[in-house]
Design a protein that fits this description.
Blueprint (H helix, E strand, L loop, with lengths): L6 H10 L4 E5 L5 H7 L8 E6 L3 H6 L5 H7 L4 H14 L4 E7 L13 E7 L7 E6 L4 H27 L2
Parallel strand pairs: 1-2, 1-3
Antiparallel strand pairs: 3-4, 4-5
Helix pairs in contact: 1-6
Length: 167
């Protein structure tokens, strides 16, 4: 199965599989959740979202290991996965999608502007999908591209889950 191309297709795919989703968003600050919520019927699958913009919210609310954040900052793959797992647990969702990165205007944690990490995971210790991207443009362009990347990765996660169920 190819990944759903848009938010409406994602909502349908989640509903068909009786799955729910949550979001944990740093640089997108709720854009991914809003895109899903724009779809009529999203309330059947969308549990909610956490805009964890501040580092202490990532640790205090989502349960990201404070030592991990202190050692490498918020812009790393392990943080994105931990954010997703934390949101899935916190909001009792089948899975969660997380975004973290640098929208600008300046680098953060030694990472250049446009660096974005997106992860999709369930609440457990199972496989997670995580991707690193480099997007060009101003803050709005980076945030918009990160939103699309998050929805795309959620579609890939659903596709892989469907493939595993068919085996």
């Amino acid at each position: 199965m190819s990944p759903p191309a848009d938010a409406a297709a994602l909502v349908r795919a989640l509903a068909e599989r009786a799955l729910t989703v949550a979001t944990a968003e740093s640089l997108t600050a709720g854009l991914v959740c809003a895109r899903l919520a724009d779809v009529p019927g999203a309330s059947a699958v969308l549990r909610g979202g956490v805009a964890a913009y501040a580092t202490d919210v990532k640790s205090g609310v989502l349960g990201v290991d404070a030592a991990l954040l202190a050692a490498g900052g918020a812009v790393q793959a392990e943080v994105a996965v931990a954010m997703a797992r934390g949101a899935a647990r916190l909001l009792s969702a089948s899975c969660a999608v997380a975004t973290t990165g640098v929208a600008g205007p300046a680098e953060q944690d030694g990472r250049p502007v446009g660096t974005v990490l997106v992860a999709v995971a369930d609440a457990g210790a199972g496989e997670a999908l995580v991707r690193e991207h480099r997007f060009a443009g101003d803050r709005a362009a980076v945030r918009a591209a990160a939103t699309v990347a998050a929805l795309t990765l959620l579609g890939q996660w659903l596709g892989e889950r469907q493939g595993a169920a068919g085996r």
